Amino acid sequence: MALEFLMWELMLLEERVRVQERRIERRVLRDTQDPFDLPREEFVFMFRISHELAFDVINAIRPLLQGQRSSGLSPEVQFLVTVHFYAQGSYQRGLGGNSILNISQPSVSRSISSVTNAINQRLLRQWVKFPMTAVERQKGREKFEAAPQPFEGTLGAIDCTHINILAPIVHEEAYVNHHGNHSLNVQAIVDPDLKILNINARYPGARNDSYIWSVSAVRQGMEYHFNNGERRTWLIGDAGYPLEPWLMTPLPHYPEWTRQFEYTKKLCKARNVVERFFGVFKSVWRCLSYQRVLMYAPDKAGRIVNACATLHNMQIHYKLPNREEDLDVELIGQNMDANLEIPYYIDQQGGPRAVAKRIQRQILDQFDNLRDGEDDYNQRRINTGKCTNVENKINVK
């Protein structure tokens, strides 16, 4: 009995020795193979960021990453492991076994959590900011007016996209989207340079776009500025959003060569920047791709989306080009009409929608060389007998 016990103890000791030897091997490999020694092009391909950007981020979040163990991972290694996960969307075990990084799966998991939280805490609000001052908003309007596809008065283009996640334990049904997958419905507002002005990754996949907009802080900010005298400033969205004085939407189902058709065509061309953004965003940060699933709880998955948004804006600031061969063309534009639920509103005298329709009418008047589609629409209703007696009298007048 004593001999068997000693043999068991010996086996445990040998296992501990193997684990310790593996740790030493990983540390030796990490010390001899510095990822920052990689050529610039290879480094950018692997991590989607440059050496300069990496050092700036690491220095900003270093106080939040330095552990108390002298043998712990350096902030540099923690950050590169996390960004490599964002960029490749790999499993943690395969990521840790990378010949350059060489760390264990538990260390990868801890690094992703620490770095993601640090970026959200230190950098998110600095790099993802919605224009609120008069100067910022004027610059935003001028940028859209000078864009290849301009739309006067626009601050940004808004839309939502789904990021697949692991089925949560609590309120699992709330995260099932219209495709039957568990996801977050992420709202983004971008400018013509694909710079993110606002990112909202807090809502489950079952929530539609118009609801997320109705409770967003950006909507409150836009309404505040409108109520304080700001005019001819709005966002542009698709038909899934409500028409408001600070949010212009398309006018579908009007025939060609009408003012409404030309207005809608111009708006949709300008709004296409947000569709293009989602394609670029998910192709650069592959962990967010529709082909992947973030194996995390909703709150952590949302923080990962925020971290990727922060790095995306930093890429633009550092003028890092997106490698066109890395982009998945199928992603660009795939979000159109996703989770589309066209809201129904009743016009009320002096209400926000009535004001918005008057603003929309002023925009339509810019196309005075085209006929008004409302005349055709009203005539069709009269011909088909769908007008009420009151409407018939108004149309006759």
Write a structural description.
The protein has helices at 2-32, 40-47, 51-65, 75-88, 92-96, 105-122, 124-127, 134-145, 209-214, 217-227, 259-284, 298-317, 352-364, 373-383, 389-396; strands at residues 154-164, 183-190, 196-200, 234-236, 247-248. It has 397 residues and is of the alpha/beta class. Strand 2 and strand 3 (196-200) form a beta hairpin. Helix 3 (51-65) packs across helix 4 (75-88) and helix 4 crosses helix 6. The termini are far apart. One of its GO terms (cellular component) is nucleus.
Helical amount? 40-55%
Percentage of residues in DSSP E strands: 5-15%
String of helices and strands? HHHHHHHHEEEHHEEHHHHH
Give the strand line-up of the largest sheet. Answer: 3-2-1-4-5
Shape, please? elongated
Radius of gyration, in Å, reads 27 Å
Stretches where pLDDT is under 50 for at least 5 consecutive residues are 28-32, 328-349, 388-397
Largest sheet data: 5 strands, mixed
Number of helices: 15
Average pLDDT across residues? 84
- Determine the N-to-C terminus distance: 108 Å
- Find the count of extended strands (DSSP E, 2+ residues): 5
Q: Would you tell me the structural class of the helices and strands?
A: alpha/beta
Subcellular location: Nucleus
GO molecular function, one term: hydrolase activity
Protein name: DDE Tnp4 domain-containing protein
Keywords: Hydrolase, Metal-binding, Nuclease, Nucleus
